[in-house]
Amino acid sequence: MYLYGTISSYSWSDGITSRNVQDALNEINTKTINIHLNSPGGDVFESVAIHNLLKNHSAQINIHIDGLAASGASVIAMAGNNIIMPKNTMMMIHKAWTYAAGNADDLRKTANRLDKIDSAAVLESYASRFVGDKNELIELLKEDTWLTAEECVALGFADELAEEIEKPEENESNQDSIKDQILNKYLGGVAASSKKKVLTTTAIPQVLNQNESPTTVNRFSAMAKAFNFVTQNIKGKE
User: Fold this and answer.
1) Fewer CB atoms < 10 Å away: N or C end of the chain?
2) What is the pLDDT of residues 124-160, one digit of tens each?
3) Angle at 17 between CA 28 and CA 8, to 5 degrees
4) What's the CATH superfamily of 2-162?
5) Model's pTM, two decimal places?
6) H or E element: which one contains 147?
7) 3 state DSSP class of 193
8) CA 171/CA 73 separation, integer angstroms
9) What are the residue ranges of CATH 3.90.226.10 in the chain?
């Protein structure tokens, strides 16, 4: 399963929704599910819902972070029984945030809600995997911490390092080599079949030498004979 894009609560979104993940899981009947994740994050409760869908599934869940698991995507990643990160991938963890408007009382209420989200949803999603204590995890969340694959393994947010998948660089020498192989394959066949049609230039002088003291007209006649000679030899050897 590939979870690529922004995590959204809207069904019409082309990103990742808990409903789409649930529908996909309902159609899977296997003992192991490999989830490929690449996302900048998104809706926190959608992320938590997807985390719980994966966590409560009976299959072994392997999370492969293909590029970035940031914000809510890192919450989803924590649901994996095994989390694999190539060396060139990253994770970002932080406290929940939102847009807010209103008077002082409204803003205080929003701040209080964010505190609850952080303690009840965000913090708990990482706590079972983090190797340190709760206060250290809180500090990392405060800092909007960006982590390399090696750092994730050290902190317990990932289990395995994998070699990055690199596309071989196309260079001119390799292209020429391939081109030469193809040309040699086909031009070689043409050249081999054409060898019987190739005549040395000595054939024409031999014909011309048959004319004793050729005049200008005789030279043209001799050249015509030479041309006929070459043509007949080619036709005769086909």
Assistant:
1) C
2) 999 999 999 999 999 999 989 999 999 999 999 999 9
3) 165
4) 2-enoyl-CoA Hydratase; Chain A, domain 1 (3.90.226.10)
5) 0.67
6) strand 145-148
7) helix
8) 36
9) 2-162
